[in-house]
Amino acid sequence: MELKPERQARVVFTPSGRRGEFPFGTPLLEAAWELGVDVASICGGRGLCGRCRVVCSAGNFPKHGIVSSPEHLSPAGVVETRYGERGQPLSAGHRLSCQAAIQGDLVIDVPPESQVHRQVVRKDADSRPIRLDPVVRLHLVDVPAADLGAGSDLTRLLDALESQWGLRPVFPAALLPNLQGLLRAGEWSVTVAVHQEAEILAVWPGFKEAIYGVAIDVGSTTIAAHLCDLGSGDVLCSNGMMNPQIRFGEDLMSRVSYVMMHPEGSAELTREVRRAVNELVAGTAADAGIEAQDIVSLTFVCNPIMHHLLLGISPVELGGAPFALAAEQSVHLPARDLGVEVNPGAVAYALPCIAGHVGADTAGVVLCEQPHRSDAVSLLVDIGTNAEIVLGNAARLLACSSPTGPAFEGAQVSAGQRAAPGAIERVRIDPDTLDTRIRVIGSDLWSDEPGFNDTLPAQGVTGVCGSGIIEAVVEMWLAGILTSDGVIDGGQASRTVRLVPDGRTFSFAIHGDQVTVTQNDVRQIQLAKAALYAGIRLLMDRLEVTSVDRIRLAGAFGSHIDVRYAMALGMIPDCSLDAVAAVGNAAGHGARIALLNQASRSEIESVVKSVEKVETAIEPRFQAYFVDAMAIPHGPAELARLGGLFPGRATRPASTVAGRATRGQGRRARRTISAPRPSKSS
Fold it and tell me: Cα–Cα distance between 413 and 654 in angstroms, integer?
């Protein structure tokens, strides 16, 4: 008797374009996996997780030679009906690929949310999307029930995991005491969390739908946490808090000094930062409505001193030359060793440091902005008490730290404060009348717009933050009341009552008598911007370039500053304004990349090894560049190197550097920097 051949159907999966022929009755998920199509599943085809949903396209597809129809799939059965009753019902045209069997030719679309390695796109268009591939994954396992001669519960679990998922991970002894109870509570079905396909971290009875991870940026001033769903890559909640170590010193070197003077100081600071991280993680989990026990993975980025203190390492060696790190490599350790009360099996990963003053936070910025993947010369600047600077491209990367001090964060400025509601963040000065307009954090209106006072935060105007003081200094220079060498010109006092004597110098009032810019304030900004620019110039010399193609300003300060004013002040080198952007907490985004994509970890570890470190403290040219950069925008030597004018930059002719610009020159300079008057939506 001659056997009839099995009926075959042609199936094309989009967007991958992979295709094949399969016997009628083959589940779509099985066909997808056989072709290597990227379809997710936690439950392994049991119709519980809903991750494998697909869309059947209908119509004639001449390109593929296929007429596709939803009727070419088996009808929805009990399992899909129960899934819709238990969770969110399937949308029209959607099917669970593990339950839908092939009954004819098909074009099947795998939507992004069903792809294992989907792209998690950051809202900022210029930033790198994340290819979802976390180090910890869930797998539902059906274990044969206990029987005489069937082997131990652990053996049957590991055998089932291997047969159903192709994995044979290590099972930690710490999980053994609860294993039998979990298997029986789940009626011989359990969900296991597997780390890098090598070790089981946790076991839950029955089907576990989601696990979570936290990306944490431990800064000297603030600690920020981003709670992510490891299955979807979505950020469920972001929170921040002040670093409680501030009571030991606002800047990092003060904390190092505290450790030097107190034998127990290092352990005390470690306890403080770990307690804060634990509180932040717990609070973020509560805000997201999840159990902290469901957090199984954490990543950290920190500056070198915070990195050492978080890991329980004394930072004393970082307090002086040669600024030796205990270790620059990435660190893997159990989260419980850091005192974080999450799942007992949770794992933690700290990104590698680059140098003694260029930390894992800068590595996070590099991972986010990817200068090593481009031929364009990129400049990355993370501005804090120290400016951490990276310059280069795919051929070569250099890094250094420059001592900018805290002025850019509002410290050491008479009315300075951090960027918070009530702080002046924008300043404009009329070049003719010297009247000022301000905008305050917490209000969308400028001070000369109706209703401004009604929209102020409850505390009113409280001071000026870093971006505000920079704009005030540049506006004073443009208006002709500040010379290029940074002196407030008391000779202009006849033009306005805002210029007032202040001892042997003068001050300029930008908001009543509450907020003024003193001569010392100007000097602090000059010192900070000169240190930043000198560090950048050293790297440019070493790389043998005279300009850069792309500039990214990272960190809280970089998020607030108007890049036009940064250029006008001379903080950053010449570059097209279109190629300059603030990227916010890029270090934190780098931590999130490392949380959600395991390949990125080996990538950044390799990149960091190749970065050339430049130590500004021992570079003889640093002081010369620093002195020349004290002028606004630069001194004669730098202006001569740049040809006297800055393409794309708002500045005055080089001839005005030696003395005060005329009001007419100031107006011409203003026309190059001023955008149209901001509206309420600006």
Answer: 29
| CA gap 565, 674 in Å, rounded | 10
* 446 residue type, one letter: W
Give the HSE-up count for residue 635: Cα atoms under 13 Å, Cβ half-sphere.
14
Question: Considering only CA atoms, which of 144, 121, 141 is closest in space to residue 41?
Answer: 141
Q: Are 290 and 355 in contact (CB under 8 A)?
A: no
Token representation of residue 324: 């030796």
Can you read off the two tokens belonging to residue 164?
């159903």
Sheet holding 222-229, edge to edge: 235-242, 222-229, 212-218, 295-302, 347-350, 331-334
Q: Quote the Cα angle for 54-58-63, to 5°.
A: 100
Q: Identity (one letter) of the amino acid at 304?
A: P
Quickly state the pLDDT bin for 680 (edges 50, 70, 90): very low
Helical H segments across 323-388, by residue range: 360-369
Return the pLDDT at 257: 87
Residues 6+ apart with CB under 8 A from 6: 23, 24
Q: Are 73 and 101 in contact (CB under 8 A)?
A: yes
d(CA 119, CA 136): 17
DSSP designation for 586: H
**Confidence (pLDDT) at 517:** 93
Structure tokens at 309: 């203190």
Q: Answer for the pair 476, 521: CB distance below 8 angstroms, yes or no.
A: no
Looking up tokens 């299955």, which residue turns up?
231
> Buried b vs exposed e over 411-426: b needs ≥16 C-beta within 10 Å?
bbbbbbbbbeebbbbb
Q: Alpha-carbon distance 122 to 588, whole Å?
A: 12
- Separation of alpha carbons 27 and 22, rounded Å: 9
Q: Of the candidates 215, 204, 226, which has an alpha carbon nearest to the alpha carbon of residue 293?
A: 204
* pLDDT over 50 at 404, yes or no: yes
Q: Are 510 and 517 within 8 A, CB to CB?
A: yes
Q: Which two tokens stand for residue 321?
A: 């030359």
Q: How confident is the model at residue 125 (pLDDT cuts 50, 70, 90)?
A: very low
Q: Which helix (H) or strand (E) holds 612?
A: strand 612-613
Q: With CA atoms as reference, report the closest residue to 338 among 399, 295, 288.
A: 295
Spatial CA neighbour of 24 closest among 79, 137, 77, 102: 102
Which band of pLDDT confidence, cut at 50, 70 and 90, is reported for residue 136?
very high
Q: What does the mean pLDDT of the chain come to?
A: 86
Q: Would you say 352 and 367 are in contact if contact means Cβ atoms under 8 Å apart? A: no
Cβ-contact 308, 269 below 8 angstroms? no
